[in-house]
Design brief:
Blueprint lengths: L4 H20 L3 H5 L1 H19 L1 H16 L6 H9 L2
Helix pairs in contact: 1-3, 1-4
Length: 86
């Protein structure tokens, strides 16, 4: 069973944030300033995403584009007929 590309990308992005956050919480200074740990983890996660997750983002974007444009071949009359149940 193949996982949807959007799900794969979402899980990888969450991991890119949660793993650095967990590592930062191991340091005592970040336990006191949890908001600073979250900020640094967000910056690290964004950097990881830009550097390493370009291919999953590309696949997810192509899937979204394909789903949005698969009904473009229909005419307005066909869309109206299908919406009215005729």
């Amino acid at each position: 069973m193949k996982l949807p590309p959007l799900l794969v990308y979402t899980v990888l992005r969450l991991l890119a944030f949660v793993v650095p956050l967990g590592i930062l919480w191991l340091f005592p200074v970040f336990r006191e300033y949890w908001w600073l740990a979250a900020l640094f983890a967000a910056l690290i996660g964004m950097s990881i995403s830009l550097l390493f997750l370009r291919a999953p983002l590309s696949r997810a974007s192509r899937e979204i584009y394909a789903k949005r444009n698969r009904d473009r071949g229909r005419t307005d009359e066909d869309a109206e007929d299908s919406a009215s149940g005729v």
